[in-house]
TrEMBL record:
Stored InterPro entries: 4Fe4S-binding_SPASM_dom, Aldolase_TIM, Radical_SAM_PqqE_MftC-like, rSAM, rSAM_sf
Organism for this UniProt entry: Hahella chejuensis (strain KCTC 2396)
Annotated GO MF terms: catalytic activity; iron-sulfur cluster binding; metal ion binding
Xref: PROSITE patterns: RADICAL_SAM
Designated name of the protein: Predicted Fe-S oxidoreductase
Length: 425
């Protein structure tokens, strides 16, 4: 791992009631602090990935080495599909509500077994992107403790709705990195985005607990905010404030446009390409002028973040289906049919991870190109083209059968069988 967790930060804080970021817990840098000399900003001068959260801070060299050794570094895996919130933009909704017969969720034991398989393939990180809220999965702590016992890093995406001081302590002790949903400075906007009154205050309090516990005190940090930028709820000034707050406080800024899946599989919710470009250009300018960080950004992520998941990871959903990423991109296997090792080493999976991803996001770019297939067809579109040239990949063919790719569809509300006469999958 190329992490350096040792450096402690010593930031100068002032109370700034007049700041728009006052709605965030009270960390705001004094105006006389030279932002360019903050330890995490200095560390980012030599390696931009030092600003990304531990467990996700893969640089090109790490990826190159992993590729040379055929190592899987990063396992994404879903926990429960349950969630108490109702985000209007949630990409994971179709996974949660399933009318498809025999689509059975993985058990805690099966998840632990998959994690062990990933460890044997070289994985150092297990990420929970969340089909729902991972923290309310009955097996959540058992699994996080298991990951820790294997010497791996947990990366948790959470709304913070169920995060109290005891949970923050436990996550800290178990070495987890936390991506907290923090879509807006304004708690009322947060409430509207998740459809639940009082959520914004809970998220704010969760942020306070994580900061207090010191999740942002290492380099790279162990704390990130996940911010989705939607046409309805964001102006660029809001995002700029959130972004500066992240940079000042060594919180990884995971700021991006929506993935067009699930509830967000709808043009009206998505930033058009030009606005997405404006968003990342705004962050680039702040970084260059105020923090002395120079880089070329890559749509759709701001702040110089470049997703490399496809080169080094796999995603396993609630039912054991395997994809290249949790944007539910391309189907590569099914763990009720094959082992993780067989999926990782299949010809098609190998083909997918060979070109450098370096920030490219297939699901979003496809949408911006106007190629509008059904949600299920998108997952095998590229495979079918590859298959026409190279013939069947037995692992993907078994996965297609198990998923029922020809008679199941993902809708904005859930997965359903396309026709009532279809045989159960
Ligand atoms: C799917 S949620 C699951 C974990 C947890 N329930 C939460 O909301 O943080 C993980 C993250 O994905 C974000 N997200 C949800 N729908 C999205 C979409 N269509 N595009 C991009 N991110 C999305 C959420 O805001 C959240 O920060
Ligand atoms: S984004 Fe997270 S909190 Fe919101 S509905 Fe989806 S799973 Fe629940």
């Amino acid at each position: 791992m190329d992490n350096n967790h040792a450096t402690l930060l010593n930031v100068h804080l002032i109370d700034a009631a007049e700041e728009r970021t006052d709605n965030l817990p009270n960390l705001r840098l004094s105006p006389d602090v030279d932002r360019k000399s903050l330890p995490h900003i200095q560390a980012a001068q030599s390696r931009l990935e030092n600003l990304w959260a531990v467990g996700t801070d893969y640089c090109e060299e790490t990826i190159r080495r992993a590729r040379a050794e055929n190592r899987l570094l990063h396992l994404d895996i879903d926990m429960t599909g349950e969630c108490k919130l109702k985000c209007f933009y949630c990409d994971r909704t179709p996974d949660r509500y399933s009318d498809v017969p025999d689509r059975t969720e993985l058990s805690t034991q099966e998840r632990k077994d998959i994690i062990l398989q990933a460890r044997r393939l070289g994985a150092t990180t297990v990420e929970f992107p969340g089909a729902g809220e991972p923290m309310i999965d009955p097996g959540f702590w058992e699994i996080v403790e298991y990951i820790h016992s294997l010497g791996m890093t947990t990366v948790l995406f959470t709304s913070g709705y169920h995060l109290d001081a005891a949970a923050a302590d436990r996550l800290y002790e178990l070495g987890a990195s936390v991506f907290l949903k923090y879509n807006n400075i304004d708690t009322a906007v947060q409430d509207r985005m998740v459809g639940v009154r009082g959520y914004g205050d809970k998220a704010r309090s969760a942020m306070g607990l994580l900061l207090e516990r010191g999740f942002n005190k290492s380099i790279p940090t162990r704390l990130a905010i996940d911010v989705v930028v939607t046409p309805k709820y964001h102006d660029l000034d809001d995002v700029a404030d959130l972004f500066r707050w992240c940079r000042d406080n060594n919180v990884h800024s995971y700021i991006m446009t929506l993935i067009p899946e699930g509830m967000a599989d709808h043009k009206s919710l998505l930033l058009e390409k030009e606005r997405a470009n404006d968003l990342i250009e705004m962050m680039r300018k702040i970084d260059e002028e105020e923090y002395g960080l120079v880089y070329s950004p890559s749509r759709p992520m701001g702040g110089g973040y470049r997703c490399r998941q496809v080169n080094c990871g796999l995603f396993v959903n609630l039912f054991g289906e395997v994809y290249d990423c949790n944007g539910l991109s391309r189907l590569v296997g099914h763990l009720r049919q094959d082992t993780l090792e067989s999926v990782w080493n299949s010809a098609y999976a190998e083909k997918i991870r060979t070109p450098d991803q370096n920030g490219f996001c297939l699901v979003r770019e496809r949408q911006w190109q106007g190629r509008d297939l059904s949600a299920m067809n998108r997952k095998v579109e590229e495979y079918e083209r590859w298959r026409a040239k190279h013939g069947d990949d037995a692992v993907v063919e078994r996965a297609k059968q198990a998923v029922g790719i020809d008679h199941v569809e993902l809708t904005r509300k859930g997965a359903m069988v396309k026709t009532p006469t279809t045989q159960p999958v």
